[in-house]
Amino acid sequence: MNDSTSSYGDFETLREQAIGLRRAGLSLRQIRDELKIFNNDLLNALVKGEPSPARRHRAKDDLRERARELRREGWTYDRIQLELGCSKSSISLWVRDLPKPEPRYTPEEQQALMHAGLARLRSAQNEERERVRLAAHQEVGELSDRELLLVGAALYWAEGGKSKPHARRERVLFVNSDVGVIETFVAWLDLQGVEPEHRRYRLLIHESADIPAAHQHWADVLGVDVTVFSRPTLKRHNPKTVRKNTGDDYHGCLVISVNQSARLYLRTEGWWSGIASHAQGRLR
To answer: I need a surface site. Which of 42, 195, 250, 269 has the fewest CB within 10 A?
Structure first.
């Protein structure tokens, strides 16, 4: 049998194929014709241990007949597979003698169905994202003064100006374009007792933006009059650069500086050092 096997290829591969066909309901003759194996000893060896179609459970026959009925009704392999829970290879064997059904939809209808399906998928994904965000939002609850102190210190050390050994600037200077970040920082300044008269506001914005509208936007966020803003710092437009931060939603960055803030800066540096030291201890 070894010589015969070598003439038909790998025995185990052939056996897998033969068993699959046998379980799909094919007779030995049908398997012989399908795999082009005309050596009876080899054929019997390939299906050894597999019951004949006559001994198979009736449920397989019922599936086959149901698959053929659905195919006659114009169902695709994918729909039949979802309906019956059997493999496409089995379905193909059962219905391949039946004519291929006419397409149920025109190309335009198929395109519309695809877009509708994608829209439903995106809607479900957006709902899940919102659910995750809302659950996380609710986990925060109310912030204590200590928690706001630590959050503000970490936020400043990530986004604020920092003194350098070669350029000592021990003062509080904060720049950001995110409303939530600015509001959190201002609440932190309130917590530190920084009076409004010690705060300075300035825009850092592209020259092509609507600067009066941007001033009004940040004035509304801060709850101040637009007259408190210093002269804006304008970014010159480079015609070779394609900007994405344009339109009515672009309001530039808000620069907040605090007069006579060296002590607050040093305390912030100390708070951050304490946070970082604690985090390093958890890593050890």
So the answer is: 195
